[in-house]
Predict the 3D structure of the following.
Amino acid sequence: MLQQAILAVRGSDGVFMVNGPPSCDENADFKRDSSKMCKVMVFSPDASLFAWCNGETVSVVSVLDFKPVQTLPLPRVTGLHFSSKGTHLATWCPYFTTKDKPQGEPNLHLWNLQTGQCVKSFFQKKQQGWHPCWTEDEHIVTRQVSNELNFYEDNSFEKIAHRLIQQKVADYKLSPGASPIKVAIYVQGTQGAPSFVRLFKYPNFGGPDTAIANKSFFKGDHATLMWNKNATAVLSLATTDVDKTGASYYGEQGLHYLATNGDSAIVQLSKNGPIYDAAWSPNSTEFCVVYGFMPAKATLFNLRCDPIFDFGTGPRNVVAYSPSGRLLALAGFGNLRGKMEFWDSQRRELVGRVEAPDSTTFSWCPDGLHIVTATCSPRLRVGNGYKLWRCDNPVPPSSEVSCDIPELWEVLWRPIDLPEPELQMGTSGKAPASGNHKKTANAPQAPQAYRPPAMRNKPDTVKGLQDEELYKPARRSIPGLPADVGKEATRSKARSRGAKKAAKEAKAVEQIKNSDIVVDESLKSKPESRAKGEAVSNPDTTQTNDLALTTEKRLKGLNKKLRAIKKLKEDQASGKQMQKGQLVKIESEGDLLKEIAELAPKTNSQL
């Protein structure tokens, strides 16, 4: 049992467990909880315990034999988190107040799983970042409160051992591994000040001067902090809510690098657009980034932030390494089709492809060779279920292990270390199924052309709509004549039309030459314009006509101003208060009448 991969499933059918490949059947040792109110479930980091809440109690069982460990009467719990070694369990429920208790009650509790007693309670109004964080040896526990981080030691919560005080601290992340422990914090900038990420070594929290690395930047409303496995460097993916340039709906992103030796840099990317995802390799010496407008680009970087390999472009927005780092998955979910590529991270070779349409999540099996994709509610409420795939296939597999559930909420692998099997290039990737699971052969197929019901059981007589021949225009044919004769007739008609047009233009030019109208030299090079009936007039006549048009336009403008003045006078007579500009306009009535009297005789004489 210890070396068995297990998948926990939570949905409208309750909570149950499924054995990993190759059996892929429901685990009979775990008693299914059929409650439709299972809100949360979680494995302990050491893979020894499993906990879930069914709307009445919080149950904790041992994964080794599935015997109960503790049952806590907590019906409203929506958050569970184990300590690193599974000695403590943190529970969170929504904060609320009543008339009798306007201050509310503590809603974050820490439980000792050996005694079943609550060792500490806190007020935690926000669900984001609610749970405390333990180091791997559980020597240090930290919790974020307003403008500071509180550190406890040896699971003793009665006294705060150390404090890291920083105004506007928005997020933090403890380094993995054993001592010495490092802490990365993110502080959002305000009022023109930049945001920044700082690294501290526990317990040296004296101020900015004690930070071992610092990186400041603008355009950072949020940030995701990612330590590498060896705790030597951090990636900070900064994001803004709004892209002020309007280039992206998802805001602007920037990727920054900080090392514990004090180095820091911004990761320069070769394509404009959003940064969708970034992930460290388990070897801690390289990381992969997916970025750029679709089709997105994927690039591998070293610790100097220099690109060392380019995976090309494709419909992708997720990157994930297998547990050992042997394989790298590049996938596209959400508004993308669900195409996934699997690369050998050492040889830089493509080893498999999978297409899982409408998937909302995926994760690696602990064996590093299989993955699970799932369509979960409420992201998608139709077609809910999960599928298990094998990755080492150069072409999409022809079969899959799948399980349909009326409403699926979550799937979760047990975080156990398993030996990775050898890659089998070119295998079919089939995985046997049993129990309530079914093996299907409905691999994604290319869309087919619509066929009427009466033609569906008959052989094809017409080529598919994708064939190029159907896009070519049909050519008319004359019965009894070869096809070349029709082509020659078409060419002859085109030559005849061209000859007629040339003759017509020559005739128009001859008529203009024989007339008394003065021809502008610039028009001789444009016989086609004269063929269309363009009139060529005498320059003196044109100048007289232009002057008449100018005078007439001026009179119309003056009459319009007189009508406006007349309306202003009426408003003034009715008692309406006039502004200074309106009074000036009324006083200009005499000048307008005088100018109209001067222009009227000129207009009559020109006409």
